[in-house]
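Quick one: structure for this chain?
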Amino acid sequence: MKAAVLHSENHFVYQDIAIDNCQKDEVKIKVMAAGICGSDIHKMVSKWKYPLPAIMGHEFAGYIVEKGSEVTNVEIGDRVAAIPFFPCHTCEYCTSGMFSLCENHGMLGSKSYGGFAEFVNVKASNVLPIGEMDFEEAAMIEPLAVALHGVLNIQPRLGDVAAVFGVGTIGILAIQWLKIAGVKEIIAIDISDEKLAEAKEMGCERTINPINEDLMGKIKEYTNGQGVDIAFECAGSKVTQEQCLLITRKKGKIGYLGIAYSDVVLSEKAFENIFRNELTLKGFWNCYSAPFPGEEWTKSIDFILKGRIKLKELISHRFPLEETQQAFDLMINRTETYGKVLIIPNKE
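Got it. Here's what it folds into:
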């Protein structure tokens, strides 16, 4: 098969590579769409810590073209989304149903070959039927489940006011879930006016660009001086990771979805707010719960199929498999404004 093979940081080669027949508990997926995750980009500008050569891509969907002798849950021709995470099922977290915290998990696209290829072998237990869902939408189920994992666990109350820092893909998806959960008003915060305009189209009542607006002043204005009930950090910036602590009301909640890529040093005021305002801080990792893969995945599929989630509008670029290098170059160098970037290994 053809694949975009990673040989070193941000060095992809479009080449032929062998793929095994399915094991007895596996299926072979013909990949129709695969998303590039923000974490993929970070790995290209820092250090790749997994075996090389590698095939990246942990957000993908397609249809089954082969199945192992013991597979009974799906059939050849079924349209499916891949669950890239393989919990060990034996550590204390797995046996407690907290699969996102598994200490010995496998992962497609890093520890084993992923979706930037024409085909992928996946355990049959790690696929979910998608019905007639568009493959491009299905490739975004994984990030949608990541956003839902945060929203479900921050437990918004009907009528809450929330702020979302960083309105890239995860931020926009979190906004949509917060609206569904009954949040009364959402304030989108980003340094890109273009991203803020997209957030407004997705239902955000207010936006703030801290580059040319007074963040604290605007928050006070919009919340009658109280601060927001919930702050979601989706930017992965040490600046916004601190600002969450400054804009949240007493007894408010802060959810961290963005990865910290550098040390976070807090001002005295920000740190004091944690205990003086009795804030609740929660971090959210991955998107899995019991029974595996969890309601994050099943609800994401249900809401997409019911037309309750907008995904197509978030896709800005599509690249054929042979242009995977160009896709990463665009995102790393920010040569254009982009939203969700997809790799298309096969055409219908």
